[in-house]
Amino acid sequence: MNLRTKSGFVLREVGEGTVLVPTGERVVDMNGMVILNDTAKFIWERLDGSRSAQSIAAELEETFEVTTDQASEDVTDFLAELERLGMLETEDAAD
After folding, report:
1. Does 94 reside within a domain?
2. Considering the domain boundaries, does residue 90 fall inside one?
3. 23: domain range?
4. Measured on CA atoms in the order 16, 61, 59, 30, is the torsion positive or negative?
5. CA angle 31-56-36, nearest 5°?
6. Which of 23, 37, 62, 87 is the 20 to 30 A CA-CA neighbour of 9?
7. Close Cβ partners of 70 (under 8 Å, ≥ 6 residues apart)
8. Beta bridge partners of 18
9. pLDDT digits (tens, 9 = 90+) for 13-64
10. Is residue 92 part of a domain?
11. What is the rounded (10 degree) CA torsion for 56, 36, 85, 68?
């Protein structure tokens, strides 16, 4: 299952940090911005509908040189938070 972020959010660099800013109708749904650490930003940037959680975790493991378990946990936790906030869509991979 491939993962994609819902539309209506813009990634912005602010100072030395990164935030997700809701736009349009999403402003009503969200109460402010979402602050991302480097790991969350990395994951967010890969939620384009072409990758699964497992493939994102594998990229995270390689890029940040963390264990497989840590990468999987980071991806799972962040995706759960996005789901809770209504910011995530899932797509079945093309047959």
Report:
1. no
2. no
3. 2-85
4. negative
5. 30
6. 62
7. 61
8. 13, 36
9. 998 899 998 888 777 777 778 899 999 999 999 999 999 999 999 999 999 9
10. no
11. 30
Six token digits for residue 60: 């995270």
Angle (deg, nearest 10), helices 68-84 and 53-64: 130
Q: Which amino acid is at 5?
A: T
Domain total for the chain? 1
Contact (Cβ atoms closer than 8 angstroms) between residue 53 and residue 76: yes
Q: How many CB atoms lie within 10 A of CB 63?
A: 12
For the CA atoms of 78, 55, 37, 89, what is the dihedral angle to 10 degrees?
A: -50
- How far apart CA 80 and CA 55 sit, in angstroms, is 16
What pTM does this model have? Answer: 0.86
Residue 80: CA count within 13 A, CB half-sphere: 6
